[in-house]
Structure formats: C-alpha cells, structure tokens
C-alpha cells in the first residue's frame, strides 16, 4: 500500500512538471509571437503619426507647430552647475611606455633602451578577429628597433631588455594594407559628389550643455578657432544609443530594418544586413572606420546581434575585446603609461594620418568616460583638444567635414 502511494506521488509530480514545462514553452511561444506583432503594430503607429503630421508641413516654420521644441537652458545655471567639477588628470604608470605607435609604425623608444642596457627585443603578435566577441593570436615577429603594422591594426607586444626587465602591452595602430587601397582613391569618387572626407566623433550620453561644462577647452577651440557651426540639438526617434545612431547611419528606424535583437534567437540577423552609410562610402572609393571603446555595451552588440563580417576596413572592437580582460593589470583607466581614451583618440589620428591623401569616412564613438559619469569625461579635455589641433595642424580639416556629436544626454 505504501509502495503504491509512493509511485502515485512520483507519477503525479512528473505529470505536474511536464504540464508546467509545456505551459512555459507555450508562454515563450506566445510572447515571441506577440513581440513580432507588437513590432509591426508599433511601426504602423509611427507611420500613421508621420502621415498625420504632414498636415502641419505647410506651416512648419511656425514655432507653435513644432512638436519637439528644444528648450533654452542656461549652461551656467547655478542649480545645475554646482553638480559639475573638474577632476584631476588620470595617473597612469610612472614608467614611460617602451614602445610608441605613430601611424602604421611602432618604435622602441630611445629612452627605454638607455634605461635598460642599450638593447631591447620586442615581439609583436598579431591580434586577429574571429567574430565580434572572439580573437585569436597570429604570427609573431621580433624586432630591436621598429615594426610596421601590416596584417592587423592590433598587436600584443612583449619586450625583454638587456638588463632582464620585461614590458608587455596591447597596442593599436593603422595597418597600411595595399590590398585595401585597390578600391580606394579620389578617381573612384563620383565627380558630382562633394569630394570631401567625412569624420564623425561622438561621446555617449553627453548633452550639449554638459559638453560645454566638461570639455571647455575643446569647445572653445571648436567655436573660436575652428569657427564651428553649433547645432543646439537634434530629435532622436527612440530611447538609447541604437535609436539615435541607426537612423543617422542607415536612414531608417530599427523597426524598418531586419530583425537583429539577440533575444529573438534564430530569427535575429547580424546587423550587416543594415544599409549602413559607410557601405555607400566604400562602394564609392572611400576607406572607412568604425570605432567604439566599450565592448560590453556596444551600439550594435549589447541588445543587437552584432556584425558577422567586419563592417568597415578599420574596426576597433577587436582591440577592446582583448584589452578589457587586461584592465586589472594596468593603472585605472590606462594601458600602461597611456590613458585608454587617448589610445582611442590616437586610433582616429593615425587613421587620418595614414590615409592623408585618400578619401576616408570615419566614425569614432567614445563611451567609457561619459556613459556613467557626467564629470569623468572632463579628464579627456586636454587630449581631445590635442586631437582637434592635430587634425588642424596636419591640414586634415582642409578637406574634411568634421561632426562632433552625442547620442543623447544627461
């Protein structure tokens, strides 16, 4: 009698678990279908609102008929300004880097050689992308002087000095790949185009007024020296970085593009299916760059599926995917003697220098300093100013449309 009751309980429990599992799977299926339906309904609602708004187009210059009016906010409002402060500069390693990168060339410094016995051997190992979240190591080349980046923009560097001391780092430069240049050149750019370079530099979560408060030297240089046109705001079509950048880069909202959300599982496509503007530039003779510095919350990787193939000829995500696990081995916000934001800025500078005579499109979007702290980005003011001055002094701005922007602000 006891044995029968025991088996009956086990059978009932197994049956209950099976029913529960079926119920959960059914709910997942329903939610997935509902998510697709909600996406279609939301797109229809947006299109209806856009269509209805056309009735105002005849009087669109009347401020009363502008739905999203930008507020006129005082940059120095004491109620807000008291929350801002200039932070101390980032303190990196006391020992200067043994190797420095300029353009496509890494050089062992004279100072390092003098301090460590007169001779240093450095091994450069290629950092090669496998996919958006994984890299592998390639060929290793040794040198006692300099090394030219050829097969990759990124290298693991390991040096041993004559006195036995060692130095290691992960470094970024711009490889000068002749194969990339086969389809690049002003002769391939349509004659009816503007015949100009285009460079976009962005800061995540940095509002117009916060930029002025935290990067005052850069703002002064932009407005007073470069005589930049200041746009007081723009209307984004959704909440978050993708909703701000996707329409700028594709001319479409996310709802109008192929499904790429990670949570949609097998239905999600890689974002290579998006009609990115850099693809148009590539087809028309331009060398291209897309760079971000925070791989875990990347614009196209945090919520979306990311890229299957590299989106541009120069793509910085692999560098930070490999560098991120190493951060604990370096001073805070640094890679050895160099602040990480400067490594990022230098990647842009090197891109412009290496391809000085070639048509180029670049978009570099900085996140680490500005995403979570509206004061921390102030430590980058001097280095960002140096980047802007370098662009001017090297005459890159003579034939370049430069756009400084953010996705949204706080």
UniProtKB/TrEMBL annotation:
By what name is this protein known? Uncharacterized protein
- Cite the SUPFAM superfamilies for this sequence: Alkaline phosphatase-like
InterPro entries xrefs = Alkaline_phosphatase_core_sf (IPR017850), DUF229 (IPR004245)
- What is a single cellular component term in the Gene Ontology annotation? extracellular space
Lineage at the top is: Eukaryota, Metazoa, Ecdysozoa, Arthropoda, Crustacea
């Amino acid at each position: 009698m006891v044995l029968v009751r025991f088996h009956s309980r086990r059978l009932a429990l197994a049956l209950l678990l099976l029913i529960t599992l079926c119920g959960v799977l059914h709910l997942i299926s329903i939610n997935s279908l509902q998510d697709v339906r909600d996406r279609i309904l939301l797109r229809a609602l947006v299109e209806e609102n856009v269509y209805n708004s056309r009735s105002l187009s005849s009087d669109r210059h009347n401020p009363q008929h502008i739905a999203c009016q930008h507020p006129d906010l005082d940059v120095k409002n004491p109620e807000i300004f008291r929350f801002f402060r200039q932070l101390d500069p980032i303190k990196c390693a006391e020992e200067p880097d043994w190797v420095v990168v300029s353009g496509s060339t890494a050089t062992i410094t004279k100072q390092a050689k003098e301090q460590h016995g007169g001779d240093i051997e450095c091994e450069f190992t290629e950092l090669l992308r496998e996919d958006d979240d994984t890299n592998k190591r390639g060929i290793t080349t040794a040198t006692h002087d300099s090394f030219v980046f050829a097969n990759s923009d990124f290298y693991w560097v390991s040096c041993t000095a004559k006195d036995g001391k060692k130095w290691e780092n992960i470094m970024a430069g711009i490889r000068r790949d002749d194969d990339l240049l086969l389809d690049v050149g002003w002769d391939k750019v349509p004659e009816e185009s503007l015949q100009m370079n285009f460079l976009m530099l962005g800061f995540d979560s940095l509002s117009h007024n916060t930029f002025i408060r935290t990067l005052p030297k850069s703002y002064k240089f932009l407005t007073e020296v470069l005589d930049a046109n200041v746009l007081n705001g723009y209307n984004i079509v959704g909440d978050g970085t993708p909703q701000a950048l996707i329409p700028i880069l594709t001319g479409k909202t996310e709802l109008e593009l192929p499904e790429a959300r990670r949570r949609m599982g097998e239905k999600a496509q890689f974002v290579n299916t998006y009609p990115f503007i850099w693809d148009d530039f590539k087809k028309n003779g331009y060398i291209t760059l897309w760079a971000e510095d925070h791989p875990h919350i990347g614009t196209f990787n945090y919520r979306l599926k990311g890229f299957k193939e590299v989106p541009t000829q120069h793509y910085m995500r692999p560098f930070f995917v490999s560098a991120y696990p190493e951060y604990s081995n370096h001073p805070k916000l640094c890679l050895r003697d160099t602040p990480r934001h400067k490594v990022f800025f230098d990647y842009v500078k090197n891109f412009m220098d290496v391809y000085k005579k070639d048509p180029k499109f670049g978009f570099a979007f900085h996140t680490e300093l500005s995403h979570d702290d509206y004061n921390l980005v102030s430590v980058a003011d001097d280095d960002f100013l140096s980047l802007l001055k370098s662009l001017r002094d090297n005459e890159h701005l003579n034939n370049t449309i430069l756009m400084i922007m953010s996705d949204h602000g706080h």
